[in-house]
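lol ok so funny story. i was supposed to be doing the assay writeup but got distracted and ended up predicting the structure for this chain instead. priorities right. anyway since i did it might as well share w the group, maybe its usefull for someone
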Amino acid sequence: MQKRITDAAQVRAVAKAAGITDIPAGAQLTITMPKSVSGRDCECGCGEKTRGGLWVPGHDAKRKSVLFGIIRGEATPEAKAEARKELTTRRWPQPAEPVAKAEVPADVTA
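and the output, tada:
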């Protein structure tokens, strides 16, 4: 969101707050306001503030990785179901099924 300031007193006050000392007569300012002045708590629960979105940059990928780990790991069936439900709710893909590793015959030498 942008706001144009034309009032000379307001222009001087904003410029002074920004550390601008050389202001031409009749100057106008256009100020771009941030999406969210205070931000919001990151969805991952880390306690950091976002810049207006749901996540601090990269934290959505960390959360997805944690959910994939729960599903692929040795968690309880209830925990796996909750992880799958969260992935579905957030419209994230379900993890791919793990690929079985090929067994190497014992008589093969390197």
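The helical segments are 8-17, 59-72, 77-89. The longest strand covers residues 2-5.
back to the writeup now i swear
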